[in-house]
């Protein structure tokens, strides 16, 4: 049967309209995806498995202890955050009255208003970002009551944001535990003393608490804090850097023997170190960390290395670059190192769901 001409006209119109609907739908879907991507790109932090979150804690503008160094610490944290963004993720904890000192100088969505009562986030938070464990904070740098108050403020903060972590009653500052996130751990004899353990007992306790396979316990190179993160740094899967203690041969022999015995398959490389002493009356009771380049924050793909405008900085950076596949990012720490710590000491490292919770909280607040 021959169909009338108007039939074909109607069918052509229907097909034409159908095509328009499909085209409009595709355009709308494409636009929705682009909008979603655009929204994601407007955030300073990008949640990804290959990026680690580094959390800094600002001093409070009301804290008399840090009053003399307040602006220097804030400026350091702003500069450090700028170095992190684009490489890893960063959140800075601030109280309401301190926040204005950061506003306009860092992106608003990396500031999280909350109450954590000290700046040395390494020591009283968790160790090993891949499998976080919270130890009991010691009081080497403050009174016993102060240390308990500081760690309580962190515990309450972590609970508020449902930060998942294991806990142990063993006492150690996070700065006295350097690991490769894969079972190899370094501490000092201070851990033995604080927990009243023998050498072998201390090794077994750390293996049990951390799931570690190899543990080294070093004689500390200073007696105030006695932290290992001013002595060594794992900069790659099987590469350990250690300060060059050639100026004290017997001490160097002791340190190298313990490291080689504890990590028989590791590549161990010495890095130059120079020490500055603080002027009389400045941060008394603490050894300056100026000159210690190995107090570095090591993430999946980056190493944030403190520098001090000292002659040996460049040689240290060169050796680090030659012995890692990671990107080496210098961070000037000369404004904070007189207080006894620098880049790693001021950083809490977080990954996975824990990191995502804090990044999201900063965006929403």
TrEMBL record:
GO terms for biological process: putrescine biosynthetic process. GO terms for molecular function: agmatine deiminase activity; protein-arginine deiminase activity. Keywords: Hydrolase. It holds the Pfam family PAD_porph. InterPro entries: Peptidyl-Arg-deiminase_porph. PROSITE patterns: PROKAR_LIPOPROTEIN (PS51257). This is Peptidyl-arginine deiminase.
